[in-house]
Design brief:
This protein has a single domain, classed as Nitrile Hydratase, Chain A. The protein has eleven helices and five strands; from the N terminus they run E-H-H-H-H-H-E-E-H-H-H-H-E-E-H-H. The protein has helices spanning 25-39, 45-59, 62-73, 75-83, 85-90, 125-128, 133-136, 138-146, 148-154, 191-195, 200-204; strands at residues 5-6, 101-106, 111-116, 164-169, 174-179. Helix 3 crosses helix 4 and helix 8 (138-146) packs across helix 9. The protein is globular, with a radius of gyration of 18 Å.
């Protein structure tokens, strides 16, 4: 399946088989480098662990789920995030030290968005926390561009043939956040209740938001 639309000018001349391994070569190298730097006294491993723990348990993907749920509940906020995503997200206190611009993209019955970073692993840490291992893997980074529908099917997401897929390539200056469609049967739900239906993968585009009853 050829790419329906790619919003990046990066060179995508790669071809790999998709892999969901939990420890990539990049992860292994990072861990080895951390060990060496720690042994030489250049970094504090405990401080690194604390940062990782913060991004894992206190930031992502809870922050992003809050953003999505608020966009479902609050029409004014939805208009704001459509016109100026960065400002709307920052208004909730979710800012990044990297200072990157965040662009929210909205799924619909006819349009589905998928996020990738083809050159490295640029990712909206301030709203999603740490990227999953598969997001950083070469197979995902290459195949998401050339065969997005096939990649989604490997994640268990089979979209109708009429649904157009748009792939967004993150950069150091621009990161993307997918706003999934609000699940049916959630009329009258509070923002807090809705946020529990929003998963990290649904905000990357490799899944839909959970249906009522699928999440605690």
């Amino acid at each position: 399946m050829s790419l329906e639309k790619n919003s990046s000018s990066h060179d995508h001349g790669h071809s790999h088989h998709h892999d969901h391994s939990h420890l990539t070569d990049i992860d292994a190298r990072v861990r080895a480098l951390e060990t060496v730097l720690s042994a030489k006294g250049y970094i504090d491993s405990d401080a690194v662990d604390e940062i990782v723990q913060t991004y894992t348990t206190k930031i992502g993907p809870q922050n992003g789920a809050h953003v999505v749920a608020k966009s479902w509940c609050d029409p004014e906020f939805r208009e704001w995030i459509e016109s100026d995503s960065t400002a709307a997200i920052h208004s909730l206190g979710y800012t990044s030290r990297q200072g990157e611009h965040i662009e929210a993209v909205f799924n619909s019955d006819t349009q589905h968005h998928l996020i990738v970073c083809t050159l490295c692993s640029c990712y909206p840490w301030s709203v999603l926390g740490l990227p999953p291992a598969w997001y950083k893997s070469p197979p995902y980074r290459s195949r998401a561009v050339f065969d997005p529908r096939g990649v989604l099917e490997e994640f268990g997401l089979v979209l109708p043939p009429t649904t157009r897929i748009e792939v967004h390539d993150s950069t150091s200056e621009v990161r993307y956040l997918v706003i999934p469609q609000r699940p049916a049967g959630t009329e009258g739900w509070t923002e807090s209740e809705l946020s529990r239906l929003v998963t990290r993968d649904s905000m990357i585009g490799t899944a839909l938001a959970s249906a009522p009853g699928d999440r605690p």
